[in-house]
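Late entry, evening session. Most of the bench is empty. Finally got around to the prediction I had been postponing all week. Sequence below, unchanged from the version circulated by S.P.
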Amino acid sequence: MQHLSISKLIIIFLGFSLCTSVSADEDWLSQYKRDIKQKAQNKKLPGLAFIMVEKGKTSHFAYYGKTDRHGTPINKETVFRLASVSKTFTAAFVAKEVEDATYSWENSLQDLLPDYKFDNYKDSPILLTHLVGQSTGFIPNAYDNLIEANYDLPRVLQHLEKLDSLCKPGICYTYQNTFFGVLEEYYKGKNTSFASEITDKILTPLKMPTASVGREGLESSTLWAKPHAAIDKNKWVSVKVKNNYYKYNPAAGINASAADMEIWLKAMLLDYPNIIDKDMIESLTEPRVRTKRELYRREWRKIIKDAHYGLGWRVYNVDDIEIIYHGGWVQGYRADIAFSPELGVGYAMLMNAESNLINELTADFWKQQIKAYKKNK
């Protein structure tokens, strides 16, 4: 038997170590997908879908659970409510309308709905950019309680007329749902609907196979995930779909599957420039108002250096990488979406349960993705 020299043994050892390191680095995503399922199982979640898109590469998916206790296993075509992730669609749609000169970002809400009077400052009217950019100046989540009490939309908008401002429009971050009713009423006044217009100009051109707007769109889907609420620790019960936030489709009315979210993430990464172009994305993701509270989010606070709101998107500085993010939450559902133009990577998580596990899973994904990116840079 031929004996190997010490130098050759060192070379072989180093080569083996290098291969092991590369393999381990490339395998973080496989481990992450296994962790998703294990953590979901530990929480006894009803169901979830995970999507990762990487520019120029095959997308990754992972699923867990069923549409309901006795339902169908979650798959690529299972439709979920997106809740406030809908605002990312609305922002792109409004940008498209601005591009088509339907209106301008500088149009005031008074221009759009002359019968309502929201302005508290004559020299600083509330503009469309303030509505989509969450900087109207009114107390955050103003009259969400009236939405949840199922008040009619015009009645809620009339209540908004009576509110005092915390700051002038465009100065401070003041997250809203009710103000998105302005867009709903605007299109109604044009003898159309927000649902019809965003379907015609965004969902259909992108050929999203199962995306829809409104409660009827969800419940008429071939396969949809039923909502679940917690009744005890790690114990979930199916609940009825609530109609209240569906009255505010621009804020929370979009439904989508993993297949749809794959397309949406690719659109954000400019794979469909004839529909959503670079200028639109740059405008929507420009940091506008600082969102200081985001710096203290559990699971995120150790890695976020700064946070702002753009137009329909949050803009995070995570370890000096810009992550564009939004979350959604309505009764029975949670959703997260995020992408990084620098990394060319997009992520989405859809759940048919109101579980805070989504915060851990999303933050962990970006920690690992950024770590792998910087290691291989």
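Two things to note before I forget:
Residues 1-25 have pLDDT under 50 and may be disordered.
The two ends are 43 Å apart (CA to CA).
Will write this up properly tomorrow.
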